[in-house]
Predict the 3D structure of the following.
Amino acid sequence: MITIKLSDPAYENDIYPLVKAFYPDKSVKLYRRESDEKKEYITEQDSLIIEFLIDKIEVYFHILECPVMSQTLYLASTMPKPQYKNTMKRFLYGMLSGITKKELPWGILTGIRPTKLLLEMLERKMDKAQIVDRMREEYLCSEAKIDISLRIAASEIDLLRRIDYRNGYSLYIGIPFCPSTCLYCSFTSYSVTKYSEYIEAYLTALEKEISYGATCFPGKELTTVYFGGGTPTALSAEQLDRLLGFVRKSFDFTQVKEFCVEAGRPDSITKEKLEVLKKWGVDRISINPQSMQQKTLDLIGRQHTVEEVISAFHLAREIGHQNINMDIIIGLPGEGPEDVADTLQQVKALNPDSLTVHTLAIKRAARLNTQKEEYDTCKATGVGEMLEDTIRFAAENAYLPYYLYRQKNMTDNLENIGYARYGKEGIYNILIMEEKQTILALGAGGMSKFVFHEENRIERVDNVKSVTDYIDRIDEMISRKRTFLSDSGYKL
């Protein structure tokens, strides 16, 4: 375990992921260092102390086989905080890179939205050469990551021009039920079998919040609607029909550019459910195998077969769904590049309209982390090669990258990329990831984001994650939003 002590906790979210990226297999613990605390314990291995002063940063460390070292970086006392932070991160990056002999593809960027930086630069009319220089020198990004980020940011600019996102809003509705919980999952989801007795009560509570949500923005147009989870199609066809019909009757869909439902799990898909989605105007769905290797599906707890993925996809086409996304994950336990190559060939045969490539991120609450001793012997190999294969596959099959995001603890410090055929991009994905539009989130685990464009700030209002708490406290969930809208000065 690496112990980090900081004199200023304000930089925890910058330092922790940077250290973790260099030492992905080590546990990292952060502590506050008191000003009068001695540094004697630095003789213990795997210790790191960072002291932030007005005009300098002092770093003391003893990591792995490296002898005890200390370095000091002197800074101008008038340096603005953002510049101070990036200078500190480059300083620490240089030290850790020197020790480990590793370079990180994303340099010092530790946030989940690297393309947001480039999008803002393009909106300020910076030219490509300026942006490349800044990403290389300020953030130490690799040429490959700068290139893909620029391509995606340019695509987003083009898509956003078609939408009046400032004067509109989007709607997220969470269905926190799944056929089973996958090994890597940490989302708010509950077994549809074990929690079946709560579904009707959940839908009743959700309809109450939907009715309130429909009154929140009388002067704004609804842009996109996204049903996520969980797995929305874990509901029965009758329950789906009830819920989608209620939403369509509650909101004005006249200006809606995209109505998307995650049909993610093939074992939750039936002809009747696909017909219900079509009936209510759903024009984008996801059917997500994650892998087309049966051994992997069995290991990660997907509880469906490769054949069921293929059957569900063909059934959706037969029903008339013409915008289907598929998700795959690289870095899954036990897989190598040859497994991902085979998965890509099977995806190619299905010919989805978009493909989202996730790099495995092991979240704290996921069983892959809490029970990691059981899976240490089946770690993925060659994840970087897998990513290169997916990039090449996308280019060869007319899929264009259109959004990108990162998560904590991602394998090999990589990223997730959404690819789509031209005109089939997931608009909601861009709006939520680049935080360009207010998202009203309803349902258990929903996190509403209110964008104040003129002030360049975002406020969040969350719902409880527990299904039973959501049912019991639905009036409180509504009150939270009502109070925020009343007190925040948000322009309706």
Q: What stands out?
A: The two ends are 49 Å apart (CA to CA).
